[in-house]
Write a structure and sequence with these properties.
The structure is a homodimer. With about 525 residues, chain A is an alpha/beta fold. Chain A has 14 helices and 23 strands. Chains A, B: One of its GO terms (molecular function) is 2,5-dioxovalerate dehydrogenase (NADP+) activity.
């Protein structure tokens, strides 16, 4: 399949005329072919109008039809073969094995949502029987959830397959019955076009209305804002910077009809090293930490950007082990020259901050955009006094905070902004301190880890990839895992409907075999 | 129990010093004793700080403890006896039977949430087993929901018991483990104090931290805004006007940390009269409609403010029956002189609107704030051309829209803003038209009724009292019924926690006997 630089609007393919741009290979800084055409406002309107037109038909598909559609997308992505991986490598600088793994993740995610759709628990069905003899009589009431309407998804730079055109946001919105308009990320437009065509083909072969999926190129300030403020759009999924996310949140809040924005933005993922755990394993934890920190040039939302520990021999040992390990890491290509430059700026700024010491740098790489890892240290008093030390540096940079005693752990935890993850390293001897810290971490983070590193994000039922602001703009949800579908749903109650009007999910004989809350009790019968 | 005009801040009782005001008996326009003292910003800070301090302890209560606390509040409200009903009658102008019924509703609501808490389905527990042999290994992941944090609840004028100090928002927030700070409604401060003391006493006798509940007097622009923008507050529940609700939505969105606002605001609750239904029952439906319209002076969020029907004999008969019935209705006291004045303004404005005809007025009542019912008529073309005709008039006023053919039904439905309810009157002969209209109504309303009137709102599991903007500020939720608890929760995932750190809900042996999703399958074992 060739890449033509086109917009995908419903079933059509056309070249955008608003402006032209090319992808850049971050390892060389050179432009790649072909030229991509950006969408104009008319393209935005057409994509949104088609999505609106498709909504009622699409959300009326059976669970089985919708699940098969998601599986077809997965298959079409696999069928793209090596061309997808090759293009993604060129555009993202990520290595082959990582991208093959990420393709597996994207495909697995689509298949998970196919299962979620078939299970139908997302429908949240409840039935309250009529009580005609009661005063006043109780009507027959039945509830199910339906999709919110057309959803705009912004592709993320750091997961060109798993959180982009057919990534988690798109999969969960489609699973919920919502048509999707993707704003492709400018860093991997060719990868986006290939995946977009795979989705477009699945829409056609599944006999669905063309407006179920569109994909536009263009920048966030023009095309992105136009999409978010289009009246047909009812929700937004975004993964990226705090600045970019908040621009969308503000735009959505100022619409005549405000809509929800699920922006996954900023997190430094604190790791609290409890004393006995550090005393037992400082060296091993230190080198493991650096492996997590430098994985994928540190370009994960869950990258460990903050380590909190009590000063003393164990921390010294951890620090030395981490510094030594870091010095042995050679910088790898970052996603874009811009991300590389922002990383360097962040590292420079942190190095100049009062009370902050540089502990170690990694080796510089040969690539034009190699991210040279950096490890810093400060003390708790200084950290608490300087909120800027809490700013996320996207990439392999981290700050160790030394505390004079463990009492400062809770103080630091309380001081922190919302996080995607919070980690404790502990042994059973740290039990009391862990029990004291846990409630604070629950208030601060979407996921709490023990004796592990936060960079792995499982796609499953019990995953939460979310958390209090500014980790996300809406802590009530997760953007990874089965629960992500709930973001795009709203409940509708049906009172005294005759059988011929009732959706299948709510019919008396439960033809879909759903778990339903019947008069307050959960049952599948 | 005497009413002293006090603020309830945690366990303390004190007279507010910011300003002084008295409740007004709307049936006479006269002030009632005693004087109430409004809160100052220091009072707001103290209440919010206490709520914050109470949060971790309160959310850590067992399901049984929390359920018993809710039941204790219910019992304490009942134990207030006739003094509560008498004061509520004086302050609201509502009749005794209605207020006794509403007390039953408030108490029933607290007891429903006690059951919801005990059932524990709101925890949304999910467990994914570790797969240590997989590459990469899968960690042990367990998810439960926890409360968002302290919640501000605004008492609603039109339900001084069921949607005020210990109403649906308070009950569902407390059920979810969130401390509550109530901004009492200025129209029924004495009723609020009585109920507030009942809650305060339940907090004390249940051995809970005092900050679980506070109640402040003061107006929305000062005390209300200060509460919504206080950093300790994590969510807001509100029922009232669109203007009032949107002021809170905007304030919450502009915080350094934006928080969710659940504002239930504006709905005109369209009723579509399908042709055969109208032909069969025009007279009966017409008089039933007027009973629903004038119930409680029309002061329900679900009051039927719009009727859509095809012109012709059946509509004429409906219109005449409704007009005759309306002329026989004597106006009853509205909630406040201000609401009465706003109703009169709205009726006057609608009467002067181009293309709108007054069909009938009810009788004026003897009370100073009697709401004189009003029924208007226009045609579809005029309705579609004038968005102002869609503005809610809070009170017993409704507009009939005559269509030239049934094809205009979908056009009008598409044109409408979001609604709490949408109704179809139909017979089986109207089946095709109903099937065509239903998907549009699903997109527009939180609850769809057949052959009934929307004013009754059952408190149960399958109820949705919510809907797309501007019916509410957040269509993903309901403010009435078991699902209301979901508004105040967020998911937390626990990765590889040792047993001694795991909350009971997530322990291996399922000590709470919860329904849990275990490796993707729902089970109680």
């Amino acid at each position: 399949m060739t890449i033509n630089g086109d917009l995908l609007i419903g079933a059509t393919v056309q070249h955008g005329t608003a402006s032209e741009f090319r992808a850049i290979d971050p390892s060389t800084g050179r432009e790649l072919l072909p030229a991509f055409g950006a969408a104009n406002l008319n393209d935005v309107s057409r994509a949104c109008a088609l999505a609106q037109q498709a909504f009622d038909t699409y959300r009326d598909t059976s669970l089985e039809q919708r699940a098969e559609f998601l599986e077809q997308i997965a298959q079409n992505i696999l069928d793209l073969g090596p061309v997808l991986i090759e293009r993604a490598m060129q555009e993202s600088g990520l290595p082959q094995a990582r991208l093959e793994g990420e393709r597996g993740r994207a495909v697995g995610q689509l298949r998970l949502f196919a299962k979620v759709v078939r299970d139908g628990r997302w429908l949240g069905t409840a039935l309250d029987s009529a009580l005609p003899e009661r005063t006043p009589p109780r009507p027959d009431l039945r509830l199910r959830k339906i999709g919110l309407g057309p959803v705009v998804v912004f592709g993320a730079s750091n997961f060109p397959l798993a959180f982009s055109v057919a990534g988690g946001d798109t999969a969960s919105a489609l699973a919920g019955g919502c048509p999707v308009v993707v704003k492709a990320h400018g860093a991997h437009p060719g990868t986006s076009e290939l995946v977009g065509r795979a989705v477009q083909a699945a829409v056609a072969s599944s006999g669905l209305p063309e407006g179920v999926f569109s994909m536009l190129h263009g920048d966030g300030r023009t095309v992105g804002q136009a999409l978010v403020t289009h009246p047909a759009i009812k929700a937004v999924g975004f993964t990226g910077s705090r600045q970019g996310g908040m621009a969308l949140v503000r735009a959505a809040a100022q619409r005549a009809e405000p809509i929800p924005v699920y922006a996954e933005m900023s997190s430094i993922n604190p790791m609290f090293m409890l004393p006995d755990a550090l005393a037992q394993g400082a060296g091993k934890i230190g080198s493991g930490f650096v492996d997590s920190l430098t994985l994928g040039s540190g370009q994960f939302c869950t990258n460990p950007g903050l380590v909190i520990a009590v000063e003393g021999n164990a921390l010294n040992k951890f620090r030395d082990a981490a510094a030594t390990a870091l010095q042995g890491k050679t910088g790898t290509t970052m996603l874009t020259p811009g991300i590389h430059a922002a990383f360097n700026d962040g590292v420079e700024k942190l190095g100049k901050a009062a009370g902050v010491t540089l502990l170690a740098r990694g080796q510089n790489g040969t690539s034009a955009s190699a991210g040279q890892a950096a490890l810093f240290m400060t003390d708790a008093a200084n950290f608490l006094a300087n909120p800027a030390l809490e700013d996320e540096i996207f990439g392999a940079a981290s700050l160790i905070v030394s505390c004079s005693d463990i009492g400062q752990f809770s103080q630091i935890a309380e001081h922190l902004d919302g996080q995607l993850t919070a980690t404790m390293f502990l042994t059973e001897n740290d039990r009391d301190a862990a029990l004291a810290l846990l409630p604070v971490l629950e208030r601060k983070a979407g996921r709490i880890l023990i004796n592990g590193f936060p960079t792995g994000v499982e796609v499953s039922h019990a995953m939460v990839h979310g958390g209090p602001f500014p980790a996300t703009s809406d802590s009530r949800s997760t953007s990874v895992g089965a629960g992500a579908i709930d973001r795009f749903l709203r409940p509708v109650s049906y009172q005294d409907l005759p059988a011929y009007l009732l959706p299948a999910a709510l019919q008396d004989d439960n033809p879909l075999g759903l778990w339903r809350v019947r008069d307050g009790e959960l049952a599948q019968a």
